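User: Sequence in, structure out. Go.
Assistant: Echoing your sequence, followed by the structure tokens.
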Amino acid sequence: MDTTDDQLSPGGWVGVLGAHCNADDQWVYAASNGTDRAVVCRVGANGGLYYRGLYKGGEAERDIASGREGSYRTISDGGTVIVISPKKISVENSSGAELSQVELTEFHFKLDQPESFD
């Protein structure tokens, strides 16, 4: 399998199932700080986007509600939203207050992917 950088394959982070795309989907954004890892994946060639990540030891998967070139917001779940930006991932409550966050030291974009959201 071809990999780049810190074991990043077309499907996500190698050996980190919580930060790997489903089926044959491929990432359009991937980030890590060495412990926490995230991918934003596209369903098929032109489908919607979703987030999969390993964040502070827990795994999450959520559909993306909106985003532009590396900054994404997930659909609210349980009153929280995950916000993914090039340099950090944060969890916000329904009022937009940041509940927790982690800094990211490595991030990658696939700019050849369509970036349509709404």
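User: And one key feature?
Assistant: Residues 17 and 55 are 12 Å apart (CA to CA).
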